[in-house]
Design brief:
With about 150 residues, the protein is an all-alpha fold. Helices cover about 75% and strands about 0% of the residues. It is built from 10 helices and no strands. α7 packs parallel to α10. The radius of gyration is 15 Å and the shape is globular.
Length: about 150
């Protein structure tokens, strides 16, 4: 698989792109604080299935959060099976995506694609399901934008 680092959108993105839209280029959290919070959240979600929808709607909808997480956190997220659980929940509960505003849905889509790129096992074993899910997200966003 090729890297997305060569894409113009990614290549020209400021390093603090997670914070640009919400705080006029001023980071709200340091990288260390963001990674510490994510680590704590991940430990909580691993032990409580009812928190998966919150992880999806509140964390995975943050712009480019995958880009800002440490390799250790990303590895832990992928090896713990949380990414698989998130994908399963998204496939089984389409209302989760329907209840997220369009911009956050696009952020979720970007993060899912980025995580899918990082976890080749999921991509190769669940590729048809992942593609179907991604297509459903795109359709949902376009439908809501058209109806707005």
């Amino acid at each position: 698989m090729g890297s997305c680092n060569g894409w113009l959108l990614v290549r020209n993105a400021p390093q603090n792109s997670l914070f640009v839209a919400s705080n006029e280029h001023k980071p709200l959290l340091s990288a260390q604080a963001l990674n510490a919070l994510f680590s704590i959240l991940m430990k909580s979600v691993k032990n409580d299935e009812t928190l998966v929808p919150l992880l999806i709607s509140q964390v995975l909808t943050c712009p480019a959060i995958v880009f800002h997480l440490s390799k250790a956190n990303l590895d832990a997220f992928l090896t713990s099976g949380l990414f698989n659980r998130c994908l399963t929940h998204l496939r089984n509960s389409p209302d989760v995506v329907e209840n997220i505003e369009p911009q956050k849905t696009i952020n979720l889509l970007g993060n899912v694609i980025h995580l899918g790129y990082l976890d080749e096992e999921v991509v190769f074993t669940d590729l048809p399901l992942l593609l179907n899910y991604l297509w459903n997200i795109i359709e949902s966003v376009f439908r809501r934008l058209r109806d707005a």
